[in-house]
Design a protein that fits this description.
With 124 residues, the protein is mainly β. 0% of the residues lie in helices and 48% in strands.
Length: 124
């Protein structure tokens, strides 16, 4: 069992940066794929980025080049560095952990464990 807790959300201006963290308790995330998803009001939860246990990363096109996902060496935390934020990045951001297969890597169904979410608001 894994419990995930996000932190670091807040209100920023467009063009600014924000860093999110996700801490894990219960067991380490050694061989899990870890991901960030986000959900804007009235929209479905969407994939943002993931990182596999051997550090291969994948990003949604909307954030590629602006966001960076990473995990600490102890596999107890993951991070999302968000630069050049835009108003369309406004959403609740969730971290997730699991062992998805290739076809579910960027889907909600691919992950078993979820945090409670943290709000990111970008004003234009």
């Amino acid at each position: 069992q894994v419990e995930l807790v996000e932190s670091g959300g807040g209100l920023v201006q467009a063009g600014e940066s924000l860093s999110l963290s996700c801490g894990a308790s219960g067991r380490t995330l050694g061989t899990d794929t870890i991901a960030w998803f986000r959900q804007a009001p009235g929209k479905e939860r969407e994939f943002v980025a993931n990182i596999r246990w051997y550090s291969i990363t994948r990003y949604a096109d909307a954030v590629k080049g602006r966001f960076t996902i990473s995990r600490d060496k102890d596999n107890r935390a993951i991070y999302l560095q968000m630069n050049s934020l835009k108003s369309e990045d406004t959403a609740v951001y969730y971290c997730a952990a699991g062992r998805p297969i290739t076809s579910t890597m960027a889907t909600v169904a691919g992950y078993n464990y979820w945090g409670q979410g943290t709000q990111v608001t970008v004003s234009s």
